[in-house]
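Folded chain entry
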Amino acid sequence: MLLHFSILSFLFQQHFVEYKYLLSFEKKTMMYSGCCICGAAVGTGIFMSVILNSTPLSVQERKLSNLIVADSLKTIALSGGPRCCKRDCFIALETAISFVYEHLNIKLGSSDIKCIFLNNNNECLHENCRYYSS
């Protein structure tokens, strides 16, 4: 949900119309949880498809939507460890920020992310997670 709300914040700041929010929400709710494909990564593709008005017949827009998911999934996979939805959301957000700048030349704001959820996750990597904050 963190990724979804961050994307919505960006959409509203850029004055995209409300029906795009509904479209992104509809796409997100169609995902099956527990399939070991990170929803945060898929959320970056939804984000890209919405801001670019992508359709299944779009060429460049569809390409970028798939590439941002691929970049996010690869970065999440390389982070290692068991599932941590918060970490994966943080990674997907950072990946999306870099991707949007590289491909669209739009600089999105970012900050130093420190996780505050470590006590809620039995699988937390603690010191081995780049977002760990003691």
In short: Helices lie at 2-13, 18-29, 39-51, 60-79, 85-104.
